[in-house]
Each structure stands twice: as structure tokens, then as C-alpha cells.
Write a structure and sequence with these properties.
The protein is 44% helix and 10% strand. It is of the alpha/beta class. It has 3 domains: 217 residues, 3-Layer(aba) Sandwich (Rossmann fold); 129 residues, no CATH class; 105 residues, Tyrosyl-Transfer RNA Synthetase (Orthogonal Bundle). The structure holds tryptophan (TRP) and iron/sulfur cluster.
Length: 531
């Protein structure tokens, strides 16, 4: 039993189940900490761009066909590598969307964002997957299988009620998906404890099943690509970004070959490669009385250049010089390298055969002189797929903003008044909105004069995230009227409360209508592990 089942966006620093608490590593209180199981406060979304390398959705909106209103309104604010997915949707090519839900409580309006994201991608033609993270709920939150089953059903009914098509899409629960668990086991061979420690703050007390739930999530994220590689997007809150980054790494590590640019027979680190590339462009073999540029020439030229004119640190300079001197008279020639990372012998042989043009074969790599990197990537994937590999593409992600609690502060499922469950009685939903904190002024007079603060108002958020639906004009009108002082909080909340009541009524009716659809769907509703 769990005492507190935080929303993914909620504060929950305390131990909940006797399981280890992860604190997101070294992040201080004012920093943005991204912790999948702990407190994830994002006070400053800009930091996510600067510190974590999440990219802004705004910049790519034009590339997205019929962008969802959550994208248009900046609720979906960030992404990692979403371009390949947008492109596939635009061009009607294969793409997938997947997200997962820990069945630890009622589905609420925060989950609705993710449901909508999955459904929208499905409607744009992507293969859609939604999974119940029951293993994670059991191991990281200590939920019983009875509780898990009850909540799982509720999540699925809401997902279907909102428009997920179970015949086109895939639903599964982690615990009964054998293929998924086999994939998780395989991925585990490329991950180790030190890495989990660094990413999640795990320590010697962390249970093995909690760690297993991590590799299970990695398998979830790559599951849509089991049959064939395809651009895949994982819509989640930014707290899940550590998982996304690890999954992207693992996808890469599972590949048979690593394709890179190289300049000589030996390996260069990225920083070393940049200097060699620069000098290759700059130097003329004639200056060394030679008809070819050789490693020693680059070494000589590097030694004559003051460190301050180079874009490398002393350590990198030192190591690249050593490598170049050891190689001596070897010519410097750009080439595309296939490094054998995990290939079978047959696959490596097949690759060697398949490389067109001039090539040179080494113990664990092949250098191709007439192939560009893009063509080489394609060839590498082709050979991998023909020899039993997955050829995974790094999964992409999109991130939505966390909703503010209706009572101000964070939305937390341990504070019922702070959030609206999709199962709330419509009248209770109405009452919660009526009781919500607002961005309004002290008096009506002041409000007319200065305008309301829609940007800090949880009620405005309800309009933008949910109540205005696809109607941008309506959302904008509420905003403009608010900040212009024409809209007063009493009426505004009344309107929002009524819309919320209607939404909940309709949603709950639809939930009843999709009962049969759920029974017919290919997903187990009862855990075989139940007592
Ligand atoms: N860890 C997620 C959560 O806490 C649930 C989850 C499991 C998930 N597998 C996933 C989310 C795959 C996205 C993709 O809510
Ligand atoms: Fe919020 Fe509406 Fe009041 Fe503006 S008028 S502050 S949007 S409740």
C-alpha cells in the first residue's frame, strides 16, 4: 500500500513505500531537478533548454502537420529530436507514439494531456501504444496487484473515452508482455549500476526490481521498433527526461555498427577529430614537399600553432599529437568508418562485402572512402536488420508543462482540492473550480484598472489546457479579456466551472460507452499475480 501517490508533477520528496528515495543527484534546491520518482519542480523552463538540451517546440511548429492545440499554446513546450517524427507524419511514413502510465491513483486532468497527445498522433497516422506500468507501480511504489488492476482499468477507460482506437493501436501491461521483458533483459546488458547511480541517484539500498523497472521502461520506449525501426515519440512530463536520454543512449549502444567520420586508420575522440579536420582543410602537402598530407605533417603544424589559436584543451592536444606521431607517414585522408560495436561475424563480413568503392578493412572497423555518412548509416542499418539486429532509431520525446494546482502551488493527488480527477463527480469538479485560486486582483475595481494575471492563474490554465479545446479564439478571448480588465474572476470561474462540469459529465458518459470496447481490446485487465 502506498501512502502518497504523487502525480508525476507533484512534490513528493518523502519516502513513500520504504523504497529508496532518489533525489535526482546533485541538484540543489533552486535548480531544476528532473527526477522520475521524486519531486520534479520546474520553476524555470528555460533552464531545461540550457542545462538539459531540451529543444523548443515553437521553433518546429511549422514542420508539424495540423499541430495540436497543446502545441500551439505552448503547453507542449519542449522536445528532443522530434523532427524525424514530424517529417514522417507529414509524409505519411511509418511513425509511432508511446507513453506509459503508472496505475497509482485516479486518472486526472494531467494524464488527459498525455492521453490527448497519444490520440492526436494516432489520428495523424502514427502507430499508437499506451501501456500500464504495473511492474513499476509495484516495485517503485509498492502498489498491490488489486489496486493496480482497478486503476489500470480506469486509465484505459479514460484513454478510450477520449478517442484512442484500440483496434488500430496497441495496449499492454508490462507484467504480461513477454516480448517486452525479453527486450528489457537484453537492454540490461548495455546498462550498469554505476550509470543508474549517476542518472537516478540509486544507491546500495535500491532494490533490484526498481532497477529492473528502469530497463523495463527502456524496453517500453523501444517496443514500437521491435518489428522495424521507425521514428517514435514519447510524450511525457519533463521529469521523465532522464529515462528518455538513457533510452536514446541504449538505442545507440544496441546498434551493430557505429558510423563516424575518420581521417586515418586510428580512432580519434570527437575533440581530436575536429582539430585534425580543421588542419586537413588548411594544410597543403606541398608545404611539406610531399604529394600527400601525412600524420607527421599535421603533428608538425599543430606543434607550431600556439594553443590559444586552437579550439582544444591541452590534454586533447597532447593526445592527438601522440596519435599523429605514432602514425608517422600514414596519409591523412577523410573516410567514413563503420566501427563494429555488436555485430555478429557474419554481419561484419556482409558489411565488408556491401561497401562499394575503395575500402580498407581492419580488425574491428571498415573504412569506406567513397561513401558519405548518410549513405553509410543507411547501409549499416540494412545489414544489421538482415542479420537479426533491431537497427533502433533513437526515440524522440515531447514535453508538456506541469499544471498548477487549483489551490495554488503544485498539483498533487494527495491534495484532492488541488486537482481534478477524471472520475470526480461533475458537481465536485464544478465546486473545485469555483474554489480555485486565481490570478485576480484584490478588488473588482483594481482588476478593471490593472487587469488580471492570466499567466499566473490556475483557472486560465484550465481554459488553455482543457476547457477551450481546439478553439484558440476562445482561449485568446479569455486571456485578452482577463489581462484587459474586462473579465472578472467570479464570472470567469463560473464559466470555467460549468465547462468543467459538462466535460466531466460527457467524459464519464463516454467511459461507460467504451466499456465494451475495452473488454474486447487485447489487454489483460486482471493481473495473474493477484491473490
Ligand atoms: N515511469 C512513467 C511514470 O512514472 C511510466 C512509464 C513506464 C512510461 N514506461 C513508460 C512513460 C514508457 C513513458 C514511456 O509515469
Ligand atoms: Fe483567472 Fe479568469 Fe480571474 Fe483572469 S479573470 S485571473 S483568468 S479567474
Amino acid at each position: 500500500m502506498t501512502g502518497d501517490d504523487p502525480l508525476e508533477e507533484s512534490e513528493s520528496g518523502e519516502p513513500t513505500t520504504g523504497e529508496p528515495v532518489t533525489d535526482g543527484g546533485a541538484a540543489g534546491a533552486d535548480d531544476v531537478a528532473l527526477d522520475p520518482w521524486g519531486s520534479s519542480t520546474v520553476s524555470d523552463y528555460r533552464k531545461l533548454f540550457e542545462e538539459f538540451g531540451i529543444e523548443e517546440v515553437d521553433e518546429l511548429l511549422e514542420e508539424v502537420p495540423n499541430p495540436h492545440y497543446l502545441m500551439r499554446r505552448g503547453v507542449i513546450f519542449g522536445h528532443r529530436d522530434y523532427r524525424p517524427v514530424a517529417e514522417a507524419l507529414r509524409e505519411g511514413k511509418e511513425a509511432a507514439v508511446l507513453s506509459g502510465f503508472m496505475p497509482t491513483g485516479d486518472p486526472h486532468i494531467g494524464h488527459k494531456l498525455v492521453f490527448d497527445e497519444i490520440i492526436w498522433h494516432q489520428q495523424q497516422g502514427a502507430d499508437a501504444y499506451a501501456l500500464i506500468a504495473d511492474l513499476e507501480a509495484n516495485s517503485a511504489r509498492g502498489m498491490s496487484w488489486e489496486e493496480i488492476d482497478e486503476h489500470a482499468r480506469d486509465y484505459l477507460l479514460s484513454l478510450l473515452a477520449l478517442g484512442f482506437d484500440p483496434e488500430e493501436g496497441t495496449l499492454y501491461r508490462q507484467s504480461t508482455n513477454r516480448e517486452l521483458q525479453d527486450l528489457a533483459f537484453e537492454l540490461g546488458s548495455e546498462a550498469n549500476f554505476s550509470e543508474f547511480q549517476a542518472i537516478y541517484g540509486f544507491d546500495g539500498e535500491t532494490s533490484v526490481s526498481h532497477m529492473q523497472s528502469v530497463v523495463t521502461q527502456m524496453a517500453d520506449i523501444l517496443y514500437p521498433q521491435l518489428e522495424e525501426p521507425k521514428p517514435t515519440v514519447i510524450p511525457v512530463g519533463p521529469d521523465q527526461d532522464p529515462h528518455v536520454r538513457l533510452a536514446r543512449d541504449l538505442a545507440e549502444r544496441m546498434r551493430f555498427f557505429k558510423v563516424s567520420k575518420a581521417f586515418a586508420s586510428f580512432e580519434l575522440e570527437p575533440g581530436e577529430r575536429d582539430v585534425v579536420a580543421e588542419f586537413y582543410e588548411r594544410l597543403d602537402p606541398a608545404d611539406f614537399d610531399d604529394d600527400q598530407l601525412r600524420c607527421v605533417h599535421v603533428a608538425e603544424a599543430l606543434e607550431e600553432t600556439p594553443l590559444s589559436d586552437l579550439e582544444v584543451d591541452a590534454g586533447t592536444l597532447d593526445s592527438v599529437l601522440t596519435k599523429l606521431r605514432e602514425a608517422g607517414m600514414e596519409p591523412v585522408r577523410p573516410r567514413t568508418r563503420f566501427f563494429d560495436r555488436r555485430a555478429t561475424d557474419e554481419a561484419f563480413e556482409a558489411l565488408i562485402d556491401a561497401v562499394d568503392g575503395e575500402k580498407r578493412v581492419y580488425e574491428s572497423h571498415v573504412d569506406a572512402f567513397d561513401l558519405d555518412v548518410a549513405a553509410a548509416e543507411e547501409l549499416a542499418r540494412e545489414i544489421e536488420l538482415a542479420h537479426g539486429g533491431y537497427g533502433f532509431r533513437p526515440p524522440s520525446s515531447i514535453y508538456h508543462r506541469f499544471m498548477t494546482g487549483l489551490t495554488g502551488g503544485k498539483m498533487s493527488s494527495s491534495i484532492p482540492a488541488s486537482h481534478i480527477s477524471l472520475l470526480d463527480d461533475p458537481e465536485d469538479g464544478y465546486d473545485k473550480v469555483k474554489a480555485a485560486t486565481t490570478g485576480g486582483r484584490e478588488t473588482a475595481e483594481e482588476q478593471r484598472e490593472k487587469g488580471g494575471r492570466a499567466d499566473e492563474c490556475p483557472v486560465y490554465e484550465l481554459y488553455a489546457y482543457l476547457l477551450a479545446g481546439d478553439d484558440d479564439e476562445f482561449a485568446k478571448r479569455v486571456y485578452d479579456e482577463c489581462v484587459g480588465g474586462e473579465r472578472l474572476c467570479g464570472d470567469c470561474k463560473e464559466q470555467a466551472a460549468q465547462l468543467m462540469r459538462e466535460f466531466l459529465e460527457e467524459h464519464q458518459e463516454k467511459r461507460e460507452e467504451v466499456e465494451e470496447l475495452l473488454e474486447a481490446a487485447d489487454v489483460e485487465l486482471e493481473s495473474p499475480r493477484r491473490a
